[in-house]
Each structure stands twice: as structure tokens, then as C-alpha cells.
Specification:
The complex is a heterodimer. By secondary structure, chain A is of the alpha/beta class. Chain A has helices at residues 44-52, 74-81, 99-110, 115-128, 145-157, 175-192, 203-209, 236-243; strands at residues 6-15, 18-28, 33-37, 59-64, 67-68, 84-87, 163-167, 195-200, 212-217, 220-226. Chain B is mainly alpha-helical. Chain B contains 9 helices and no strands. The chains are: A alpha/beta, B mainly alpha.
Chain lengths: 256, 257
């Protein structure tokens, strides 16, 4: 058994009185594509932000390549962050910078690459996600939602990360564009041979981009297994979620 | 009991907020001296905070100087002391009105713009994206604005001082019957270096307050367009109040009786 790329042990996080993560145990093995499913507000984004160190968990440990990362600061944390690429839900492109500088941002700021060289890499990465060099000089506000996601993906892969996180990659896109983005994710992941962790509530997307699925409910992982096994999981939570039924053990908290 | 509980809650909230602001300030100030230094971003902010504030600061200073001359003339008239106008205009503008009016105008313009920009970056996860791209958001966003504001404000106030005194001169010579040469001579003879430098010191402090309040409120904005709007309002209000409070404290420090 190899060391997991990312491992969470008993991670807890609360905001005020609201417990968001209540002891999450999750392992992401090298080369796997894991999708964490769960309803809105179940703490999927919080979990990813804890791994990236944007939020600090109240309890528990997070390991990246076997190294404890909770509480890391400064250059040690930067070194860990360089292993990650992240595609944000709304793409989170910097609207003050042209597209190519968005893609090259991590190379210039994080890796100290000269701007000219970084620009060439950026155009190459844009080509990988199906965008021409004419897009490079545009500002992110001039792009459609699907194109912004592509640029976000190009930015996530720009610095050749070992692990990529996808936060709701298909949210806000029409079904066709969603499928195009799914295909793009699958082919990119295959090309680069990276490990990925995605969070989504879109089951179509989850089935397409994952080889393993875990379900988060009320701050805990209630089921985890290979994607092929999910229909026969016999887990009432999973069944309700993948079939999208209003009735079942999951009670939606209408008021948080 | 409910009264006590709400007093307690308000007190705790106050200390929590003060503590958060102190930590943020410490982070920002220490970011000024630690590499990397984003020279280009500082230059960009100098343009936005300093240069583009010139028209609004200049206009307000001009009218303030003018109205000051008018009021001192009318007030002085009661004692037959109309001739004091140039001296009091110079004193009032350099020591108090130049820095305070410029500070409040820049607070309205710049603190709001900073809070709106950083607040939008917060709610669209651009600040989180900076972190994942190995860039410290405080150093990348806060430090350049802080440095640029602290540099810009004294320059703006020096210009506002000149324009304010010029406003008084225009009103004095055009409608109050002063001789231009005598007006200027009285101004120059009366004014001391300390009058001007005290105003410039105030200006630097106000610049710090403006950028800090804009950044702090932007960084802590929550929940979409409404949250950004609230952050913008809070930035302007808190910057303005802090400027007036700091102005009083600085005046009593710089001019001990």
C-alpha cells in the first residue's frame, strides 16, 4: 500500500456554533481521481480549503505525501502548495490581468519564471484546453462562462502540479458545455497523470470524471468506494443522492 | 439578564474586532519589510490613489481656502481685525483643513474603491486563488496600497495646502480688497515650517488609515454583492471617523501647550 497523496484524519471545522466538518477521514491514493459528492452546504468546499491551508482545521491532521501540513507556514507551506493546482467554482480569474497573465501567474509569482518564458508556457497551456493564442490578450470579463472555466483549468495545470482540485467544475454551465469540460478534465488528467480530487453535486459529472467516489454528509464521509460500485452501494444516503429523491434519510436543512 | 448579556456580547464583539484588526495591521506592516516587493504594483497604486485624487483634492482645497478667507474677514470685521485674513487662512489650511479635507476626500474616493475591489476579489474566491498560486494576498494586495497611500497623501496635502492658500488669495484680492503683494508677504512671513510639516505628518497617518480600512473591510467582506456594498460603506465610515479622531490626537501631540 503506497502512501496516499492526500490524507485527512479526523478533520473537524466549525464556524461559530455550526459544525461543518465533524471528523472527516479520507485518503486520496496516487493516480486516482476521487470525487466527493454531497449536498450544498455539507462542507465540501471547506474540506478542500482546509487541505490547501486557506482554512485551518480545529482538530485532526492532514497529510500530503505523508507530510503533516496542518499549521505549516511560510516557505514550507509554499513548497506544499506548489504541488497543487486548483480550479475554482467561479473560475476566480483575476479580472485586472489579461488571460495569459492569469495562466502564467503562478509561474511568475510562485516559481520566479521570467515573464517572456511564462507567456509562452501560458499560450501552450491554453492550447491544451482548446483556446487559441488570440484569447491570451483578452480580459477575463470578455469570456463566456465555459471559456473562463477553460482558462481556470489552464491556470490550474500551468505549473505542472501533482494534485489538482476541482471545485464544482460544471456548476453554472449548460449541459453540453458541462460535458465538454468533463471531457477536458478527463483528457487532461490522463495526459498529465495527476491525482485529482473534485467536489460536485452533479452526478453526471461525478461518474464521468472519477474512478472513486466518496460521499460527505453532515461533516462525515458516509460512503467511499470505486465509481463502478456506487449503484450497488446499498447505502441509503448514497441511493437517495444519486437518484435525487426528496424522500430518504437525508434531511435538507432549508434554514442553515 | 438580557441587558447584561447584550452588553457582554457587544464588549466581546468589540474586542474580537479590535484583535482581528491589530493582527491584520501587524501582518500588513511586517509585509512592507519582507520580500518580495511588488514595485510595479506600488507604482500602479500611486497612480490610482495619488494622481487620480488630484482633481477632487485640489477643488475642495480651493473652495475651502476661499470660504475660510470670507469667514475670517466677516468675523474679523467685528473687531476691526480684517487684516488677519492671510495669516489665519495659511494657519488653518496647513495645520488642519488641508490634511483633514484631503484625508476625508481621499477616504471617500480611495477607501471605497479599495474595499470594493478587494471585497469582490474575496467573494469571487480570487483571494483564495492567490494563495493557491503561492502568493501571499496581504503582500500582493494590501502592502502596495498601504505604501502608495502613505507616500501619496503628504504629496497631495502639500498641493492642497498651496491651492487652499491660493483660494484664500483669490477671494482676498478679488472680493475683499486685499493687495496681492501684501497678502502673499503676510502669508510667507507668518507661516512656519512646523505648520506645514505637522500637516504632512498627519497626511501620512491619514493615508495609512485610508488604505488599511479599505483593505481590512474588503478582506473581511462576506456574501456577495450586498456584503461588498456593506464593506465599502464601512471602509469609508471607519476611515473618516478614524481620521478625525487621529487628527485630534496628532494635534495635541504635535502642538503641546
Amino acid at each position: 500500500m503506497s502512501t496516499p497523496k492526500v490524507e485527512l484524519r479526523g478533520v473537524k471545522k466549525r464556524f461559530g456554533d455550526k459544525v461543518v466538518l465533524d471528523g472527516v477521514d479520507l485518503a486520496l491514493d496516487p493516480g486516482h481521481s476521487l470525487v466527493v459528492i454531497g449536498g450544498s452546504g455539507t462542507g465540501k468546499s471547506v474540506m478542500i480549503k482546509c487541505v490547501l491551508g486557506i482554512l485551518t482545521p480545529d482538530e485532526g491532521n492532514i497529510f500530503v505525501d505523508g507530510q503533516e501540513v496542518t499549521g505549516l507556514r511560510g516557505s514550507a507551506r509554499d513548497a506544499v502548495l506548489r504541488k497543487f493546482g486548483m480550479l475554482f467554482q467561479g473560475a476566480a480569474l483575476f479580472d485586472s490581468l489579461p488571460v495569459w497573465e492569469n495562466v502564467a501567474f503562478g509561474l511568475i509569482q510562485g516559481h520566479g519564471m521570467p515573464r517572456k518564458q511564462a507567456r509562452e508556457v501560458a499560450i501552450e497551456k491554453l492550447a491544451k484546453v482548446g483556446l487559441g493564442s488570440d484569447v491570451a490578450m483578452l480580459s477575463p470579463a470578455e469570456l463566456s462562462g465555459g471559456m473562463q472555466k477553460r482558462v481556470g483549468l489552464a491556470r490550474a495545470i500551468a505549473a505542472d502540479p501533482e494534485i489538482i482540485f476541482f471545485d464544482e467544475p460544471t456548476t453554472g454551465l449548460d449541459p453540453i458545455m458541462a460535458d465538454i469540460i468533463n471531457d477536458l478534465i478527463v483528457s487532461t488528467v490522463k495526459d498529465l497523470g495527476v491525482t485529482t480530487l473534485s467536489i460536485t453535486h452533479d452526478m453526471v459529472s461525478a461518474r464521468k470524471i472519477s474512478d472513486h467516489i466518496a460521499m460527505l454528509y453532515k461533516g462525515k464521509i458516509v460512503w467511499a468506494g470505486p465509481t463502478a460500485d456506487i449503484d450497488g452501494s446499498t447505502n441509503a444516503f448514497v441511493d437517495q443522492f444519486i437518484h435525487g429523491r426528496a424522500e430518504g434519510p437525508i434531511k435538507m436543512e432549508v434554514r442553515a | 439578564m438580557n441587558v447584561l448579556a447584550s452588553i457582554g456580547r457587544a464588549t466581546l464583539g468589540f474586542f474580537r474586532e479590535t484583535g482581528k484588526l491589530s493582527l491584520f495591521t501587524g501582518d500588513a506592516v511586517s509585509g512592507v519589510v519582507r520580500p518580495p516587493v511588488y514595485g510595479w504594483l506600488i507604482a500602479q497604486q500611486l497612480m490610482r490613489i495619488g494622481y487620480y485624487s488630484l482633481p477632487v483634492v485640489g477643488l475642495t482645497a480651493f473652495f475651502t481656502g476661499g470660504v475660510l478667507a470670507l469667514q475670517i474677514y466677516i468675523g474679523g470685521n467685528r473687531y476691526g481685525a480684517e487684516s488677519i485674513v492671510p495669516q489665519i487662512v495659511a494657519l488653518g489650511i496647513t495645520r488642519e483643513l488641508g490634511p483633514v479635507i484631503a484625508g476625508l476626500m481621499v477616504a471617500g474616493r480611495v477607501a471605497a474603491a479599495i474595499a470594493a475591489e478587494i471585497g469582490t476579489m474575496r467573494v469571487t474566491e480570487q483571494i483564495d486563488a492567490l494563495t493557491t498560486l503561492s502568493t501571499n494576498p496581504v503582500k500582493y494586495l494590501v502592502v502596495p496600497r498601504l505604501v502608495a497611500a502613505v507616500i501619496s497623501m503628504p504629496i497631495l496635502v502639500a498641493i492642497a495646502d498651496s491651492i487652499g492658500i491660493f483660494g484664500g488669495y483669490v477671494v482676498g484680492t478679488a472680493s475683499l480688497g486685499f493687495n496681492g503683494g501684501i497678502y502673499l508677504k503676510n502669508t510667507v512671513d507668518f507661516i512656519t515650517q512646523q505648520d506645514v510639516t505637522s500637516g504632512l505628518i498627519k497626511a501620512a497617518v491619514f493615508g495609512f488609515i485610508i488604505a488599511l480600512m479599505g483593505c481590512y473591510n474588503g478582506f473581511n467582506s462576506r456574501g456577495g454583492a450586498q456584503g461588498v456594498g456593506a464593506a465599502t460603506t464601512n471602509a469609508v465610515v471607519s476611515a473618516s471617523i478614524l481620521i478625525l479622531a487621529a487628527n485630534y490626537a496628532l494635534t495635541s501631540l504635535l502642538f503641546p501647550r
